[in-house]
Amino acid sequence: MSGVTEFIFFHLNPAIKPEDPTNNEAGASLLELFKNTKHQNGYLGSSWGRSIEDENVVVWVIDWKDAQTSPTLVPTLTPYLAPSTPLTTFYATLSPPPPAHKTHDLSASPVTEIFTPWFPTSMSADETKKLHESLVAFRTELVENLEEGKRPRGLVMGQVERPGTRKHGDSPSGEAFGMVVLAGWESVEAHMDIKGTEAFGRGIGPIREWMLKGDGGDVEKGEGGFGIMRHVRFQKVE
Question: Origin, by domain of life (predicted)?
Fold first, then answer.
């Protein structure tokens, strides 16, 4: 089912444990917020999980019918945030899309890599075209050319559409556009192990030629501070 996917990154108050709703009232409340979102117009499905790199960073990924129907959920999360911490949200149309009448079930893999590289808006049209071709080739290297047993369980990607650009100090233009890649792995170690393979090297090399360092966001405005790669153990919102 085609649509748009919303990504929300936030620092959860350490006292809140949505994994233990029976013994943690605030955790139960947050879990209820996740579940109640399914009643919003255009909602298709969602998953949430903690970052393995920092368990207080939570990522909530929501599939919507389209960008027009997606509501603004950020204010509803405010009571659950750790004090004075950033929150960032963006939208992307992921490809390949899931089968008809299905959504992106990120809980299907033990670990999901979220890779969000940023690129200068000063790239020419030809360079941008080559970048998109390189990203498609990168996917092919991982899902087809890695030896069986090392391939990701699934891999989807898309361009960050809203916001379409972000300020980035390392970009010659001062601004950058982003991509997002989601890859399912058996473990963090399984992902790290493939980085030494020829297939990975061939795929990532051309992308790194244009990729900027870091996410470049203004942390004070909640635009960044979450890095360009995280591993998350997702749970499906039922």
Answer: Eukaryota
Tell me the domain boundaries of the chain: 4-236
This prediction's pTM: 0.91
Alpha carbon separation from 167 to 71, 99, 173, 180, 217 (Å, rounded):
24, 35, 9, 17, 6
Helix (H) or strand (E) holding 46: strand 43-51
Based on its alpha-carbon atoms, the radius of gyration of the chain, rounded to whole angstroms, reads 18
- Name which of 34, 39, 41 is nearest 3 in CA terms: 41
The pLDDT confidence band at residue 102, using thresholds 50, 70 and 90, is confident
Could you list the beta-strand ranges (E) of 95-153: 111-115, 118-120
Query: Mind listing the pLDDT tens digit for each residue in 123-155?
Result: 999 999 999 999 999 999 999 999 999 999 999
CATH fold for domain 4-236: Alpha-Beta Plaits (3.30.70)
Per DSSP bridges, beta strands 154-162 and 175-185 are antiparallel
3-class SS of residue 33: helix
Q: Where are the alpha helices (DSSP H) in 50-145?
A: 74-77, 125-140
User: What are φ and ψ of residue 9, in 5° steps?
Assistant: -110, 130
How many Å from the N-terminal Cα to the C-terminal Cα in the chain?
A: 18
Phi and psi angles of residue 228, each rounded to the nearest 5 degrees, phi first = -105, -5
